[in-house]
Design a protein that fits this description.
heterodimer, A: 650 residues, B: 483 residues, mainly alpha, 4 strands
Chain lengths: 650, 483
């Protein structure tokens, strides 16, 4: 049962990938879709059995490595946390699979696309079901690989290739941290199995690691290293630059990998390792600050972007920041809650924008859109639902509201309730980000769907509502975006929290932010909603009423505008600092080191002297008999002389 | 007649010698057209019978003819290789001698006499019988080299070989007489007794004698600096003769070299080791470097064989049982690779005319994919690239050298085999990647194809089942290191 969830997608990938040509495009589309749907249905069953039934389990598949102290198995650990992730991953993946049938119908390599999608899902499921760090890393690298393959899916586009390479390289930085974290864990705990590590975590809370003669608090080092890994995968500030570029991939990929699942792997990993992170206040503090900064900075960048997918990508980045600062204040359930609701509404937004792009003949620039709402009303409505869920509209104190309302507000309330310096810092940045989120969401809606059409006649004439195979899956996501918050609130972060999560998340008794979140002052509960309303109002005023205002403000606040528009110059700084110097260093090694020294002295030099020597050696071969006879006699003389001189004969 | 069992030890040699004479009669009294066919067939048959009797009669160490002749498992191993080489070359050359106007029945007869000489060499137990075997072999080979007597190059090769061979015989005989003068015996066993367990029993005169003897033997195995005849003779002689030169006499001479240095003079290893090391290094280096500049494939094979002798001498220089075993394995593999490589070279003909330039091979992978594959396998193996058989030959030799603490020798060997890899692989490159100019004739003939396939399969699959060669080499090596 558990194995079926994980391995059905792999089966789909194998069928589509290796036999795609044989069975044809149609079958290569439908078989993975069916398998994933089955996998999704089973994971709902598992969710009811494991999470609601309180029956966590670990299924050992077979031995992987046994080498001295190092011993671990391929196994599937399914507890509440995993069950939630299973639902999120399989649901979104199934929806995206089905949606892709429509979206990719004009593509020339459909089996390859579906094989990658299914393979990605397999790796993601391996990741969330891991019961040891190495299997987690296996899934982690696997999703990274699939992400690379899918970003560069249209490999004849140079930008897509560049984006794929960038994603891969930036993730390498994080992965080094993650790998070092795993090594350090093994050094400290002598095991990589999660259950053993968690059992020992408390006893190791004062342990130290010595590196370069400096003593460090071991768990802090481990947690920070692991968090670097999470930063790379989850696009936190500093290592976030690959995510917007990743939008070069097909839109279903953006929805599945770069919004709903893979980018949340970092969040999942940190929550999974909550027993470790709980032991290190420093690490939690760092997580909070990084998360809050990401939420804020990414939101500011989102304000000025013109590419519809990039706006949503920065929004994803920003929302991931929310999840991390929730973790930082020990509100792990809130982070996972937001992860789940976010998966629904962000996938909805991406697929909706995919529908727009599809309608606009692959145009992504919002400046060339406008006035589409009459032409594609269903997509328009779905985008509204997604945006309302993202902004978090709802009525405080009741169970009425969109999904994001519940999850985001509980995060902000937890941050406030933490009553720590970093918590408060995160709260205010989060509030500011909430305002900006509302602004850029409605900016997107207004620019895309309202006003006068700004595209050319031909494109406009061609605008059409997407086929049913693309729209109907979105209804499912829309339902999730509307309902998942209200339905899950009680279980995830409300009174049912303790029994629901069981042992899958550990929170120290002294870390009470989440419990206190329900008792914050009314103004704290109301503030996010006020900010959201303000953001929407401002967007309406700027893009519907005074359409010239945006340009005027951009002129007046030019430095701030440029900072945002140029994405805080992260790419430029990295280009200067790392890329150019790496190229410079590489060129130096290549020209001076490899070319001049190694080739010159080594291969080329030796080869040249070999040929010279060869010429001379064969020149000895004159063909004259007396030369040969002479050589023989000289040879004997030399040998005899040599013998006497080496002295052995005395 | 108490002498009978004594003679029996030399049964295979006697049989082969008698067959040589019988075949000559058969040749003379057959019609001219059919003579070659009949004689060739009978020659192959008698070689096979001899091979069978050698293997069948293998029965420990037997000394015969008042200590002049001996047979032991070492001799059996080497004779097997020599006879195999002779049989394969005779089969390969059948087409060639018909075509190239050398269709005379003396060819197989001479091969038989040369083979008898080689078997004598391998079984020699006395300096006198050593010389007789050597000369019987050499005289046959001189004639074989000049067999295409209407072609200048062949005659030149024969004459050069003869004159230089005579010179080397002089050196060898001079060495023998010095040794006899300083020890008073020509018997291997008596010599061995003389040198065992005594500190520096060798007088300078004796060692000079050994140096001269080694020089004569080094000429036969074509080790530097006594190698000069090799490229010219290999190039000038008819190709099947070259193939024969490259395998059978070389193996026999190496066998003789090994026996002489290890059996009678084994006690003097510290005296002669430096000389063998010097010859070995010079051969490996020259074999590797000089081959780079060659354009003619037969000359290239000549330098290649010089290099390979250098590697074999590394095993001798280590002076241990492991080293000897390494040499034996090496020679067995060497035989297979070279027969295969020459089978490929014998395919090189355009419009009925033999060609010998390496560039003529250009692009032949397109017209003769199987032959090209053969060349690929044999060149990779000659270069010593795993998992081909040639790698294991070198592997055992170098392992023995390292065990004997001859590190410099092992390093030079490895370096020169890297240089050697260049010219072997260049041939593969020319065969596979250059443009086809003129395709070789088709078909290549069944016998060539069969030999190519067989030796190719052995070369590739040796690593799967090396036990027969490794085990018999161990037994043979043990014969020279009793106790």
């Amino acid at each position: 049962m558990e194995a079926a969830v994980v391995f059905l997608p792999l089966l789909g990938a194998i069928i589509a990938g290796f036999f795609g040509r044989m069975i044809g495009d149609k079958a290569a589309q439908y078989i993975p879709c069916v398998l994933l749907t089955v996998s999704a249905l089973i994971s709902y069953y598992l969710f009811f059995a494991v999470a609601l039934g309180g029956d966590p389990r670990t299924i050992v598949l077979f031995e992987w490595v046994t080498s001295g102290e190092l011993e671990f198995f391929w196994s599937l650990k399914v507890d509440t946390l995993t069950a939630v992730m299973l639902i999120v991953v399989t649901t979104v993946s199934a929806v995206v699979h089905i949606y892709s049938i429509g979206y990719m119908h004009h593509d020339t390599s459909i089996p390859r696309f579906f094989a990658y999608l299914s393979l990605f899902t397999f790796f993601m499921l391996m990741l969330v079901t891991a019961d040891n760090l190495v299997q987690l890393f296996f899934g982690w690298e696997g999703v990274g690989l699939c992400s690379y393959l899918l970003i560069g899916f249209w490999y004849d586009k140079p930008t897509a290739n560049a984006a794929a390479i960038k994603a891969f390289l930036v993730n390498r930085v994080g992965d080094i941290g993650f790998a070092l974290g795993i090594f350090a864990t093994f050094v400290l705990f002598d095991t990589v199995r999660l259950d053993d590590i968690f059992a020992l975590a408390t006893s190791k809370s004062d342990a130290t690691l010595v590196f370069l003669d400096i003593e460090f608090h071991a768990l802090t080092i481990i947690c920070l290293l692991l968090f670097i890994g999470a930063m790379g995968k989850s696009a936190q500030i500093g290592l976030h630059t690959w995510l917007p570029d990743a939008m070069e991939g097909p839109t279903p990929v953006s929805a599945l990998i770069h919004a709903a699942t893979m980018v949340t792997a970092g969040v999942f990993m940190v929550v999974r390792l909550s027993p470790l992170f709980e032991q290190s206040d420093v690490a939690l503090m760092v997580v909070t600050v990084i998360g809050a900064s990401t939420a804020f900075i990414a939101a500011t960048i989102g304000l000025t972007q013109n590419d519809i997918k990039r706006v949503i990508a920065y929004s994803t980045c920003s929302q991931l920041g929310y999840m991390f600062f929730a973790i930082g204040v020990s509100a792990y359930p809130a982070a996972i809650f937001h992860l789940m609701t976010h998966a629904f509404f962000k996938a909805l937004l991406f697929l909706g924008s995919g529908s727009v792009i599809h309608a606009m003949s692959d145009e992504q620039d919002m400046r060339k859109m406008g006035g589409l709402w009459k032409l594609i009303p269903v997509t328009y409505a779905l985008m509204w639902i997604g945006s309302l869920a993202l902004a978090g509209i709802g009525i405080p104190g009741t169970l009425i509201g969109f999904a994001g309302f519940f999850s985001k507000d509980v995060i902000l309330e937890s941050a406030f309730a933490a009553h720590t310096g970093v918590g408060t810092f995160a709260f205010w940045l989060g509030i500011a980000a909430a305002f900006m989120t509302a602004f850029y969401s409605w900016r997107l809606l207004f620019m895309t769907f309202h006003g006068a059409p700004r595209c050319d006649e031909k494109t406009l004439a061609h605008v059409h509502e997407s086929p049913r195979v693309m729209i109907w899956p979105l209804f499912l996501l829309a339902a999730g975006a509307i309902l998942s918050g209200a339905l899950g609130y009680h279980l995830f972060v409300g009174d049912g929290m303790a029994t629901f999560w069981g042992d899958s998340i550990a929170i120290l008794p002294t870390h009470t932010a989440l419990a206190d979140a329900h008792h914050v002052p009314v103004w704290v509960k109301a503030l996010p909603l006020v900010m959201v309303a303000g953001g929407i109002g401002l967007a309406y005023y700027m893009y519907m009423v005074r359409t010239d205002l945006a340009a005027i403000w951009a002129e007046k606040l030019r430095p701030a505008y440029l900072l945002s528009f140029n994405k805080w110059y992260f790419d430029e700084i990295y280009e200067r600092l790392f890329v150019r110097s790496a190229f410079y260093l590489g060129r130096g090694f290549w020209k001076a080191g490899d070319g001049a020294v190694i080739d010159g002295v080594g291969p080329d030099g030796i080869a040249a002297s070999t040929i010279r020597f060869a010429r001379r050696a064969s020149a000895l071969q004159s063909g004259y008999l007396y030369h040969y006879a002479f050589a023989m006699l000289i040879g004997v003389v030399v040998l005899v002389t040599f013998y006497f001189f080496t002295g052995t004969g005395g | 007649m108490t002498e009978l069992p004594d003679m029996l030890a030399a049964g295979p040699e006697i049989f082969l010698a008698v067959m040589g004479m019988v075949l000559m009669m058969v040749g003379v009294f057959s019609s001219e057209k059919r003579a070659l066919g009949i004689v060739s067939g009978l020659a192959v048959a008698s070689l096979v019978v001899t091979l069978a009797s050698v293997v069948w009669m293998a029965d420990g160490r037997i000394v015969a003819f008042s200590g002049l002749f001996l047979t032991d498992s070492f001799a059996v191993f080497m004779k097997t290789l020599v006879l195999l080489g002779a049989v394969l070359v005779l089969i390969m050359s059948e087409n060639y001698i018909q075509r190239e106007g050398m269709a005379r029945f003396e060819f197989p007869v001479l091969v038989i006499y040369a083979t008898v000489g080689m078997m004598m060499m391998i079984s020699a137990n006395d300096l006198i019988s050593l010389y007789i075997g050597l000369e019987l072999q050499s005289l046959s080979l001189y004639v074989l080299a000049a067999f295409q007597r209407d072609r200048g190059r062949s005659s030149e090769a024969g004459l050069k070989y003869f004159v230089l061979g005579a010179l080397s015989s002089c050196l060898l005989l001079y060495g023998c007489s010095l040794i006899y003068g300083f020890t008073g015996t020509t018997q291997f066993e008596a010599l061995a007794v003389l040198f065992t367990g005594k500190e520096s029993a060798a007088s300078p005169g004796l060692v000079v004698g050994i140096v001269f003897l080694s020089a004569g033997l080094a000429f036969k195995v074509s080790a530097v600096p006594f190698h000069m005849w090799t490229p010219d003779v290999y190039e000038g002689a008819p190709t099947p003769v070259t193939a024969f030169f490259a395998v059978a006499p070389k193996i026999a001479a190496i066998a003789l070299f090994l026996r002489v240095m290890l059996e009678p003079f084994g006690g003097l290893i510290d005296e002669w080791r430096q000389i063998i090391v010097l010859i070995s290094v010079a051969s490996m280096v020259l074999g590797a470097f000089a081959a780079v500049a060659q354009r003619n494939i037969k000359r290239l094979m000549a330098y290649s064989s010089i290099g390979h002798v250098g590697y074999a001498l590394v095993g001798l220089a280590s002076g241990s049982e492991a080293g000897l075993r390494g040499v034996l394995i090496y020679m067995a593999i060497y035989l297979v690779m070279n027969v295969g490589a020459f089978a490929c070279i014998l395919c090189m003909q355009i419009n009925g005319r033999m060609v010998e330039q390496i560039d003529d091979l250009a692009g032949s992978a397109k017209s003769h994919p199987m032959m090209a594959l053969g060349i690929l396998v044999f060149m990779f193996s000659l270069a010593g690239i795993p998992p081909m058989a040639g790698f294991f030959g070198k592997f055992f030799i170098f392992t023995a050298a390292i065990e004997a603490e001859l590190y410099t020798l092992a390093i030079i060997g490895v370096v020169s085999s890297v240089v050697g890899a260049f010219y072997y692989l260049r041939i593969v490159k020319i065969v596979y990647f250059d443009d086809l100019l003129e395709p070789f004739d088709k078909p290549i003939g069944r016998s060539l194809g069969t030999i190519m396939t067989l030796s190719g399969v052995v070369t590739i699959l040796f690593f799967l089942y090396p036990a027969p060669i490794l085990d018999s080499a161990s037994i043979a090596a043990a014969a020279l290191f009793p106790g």
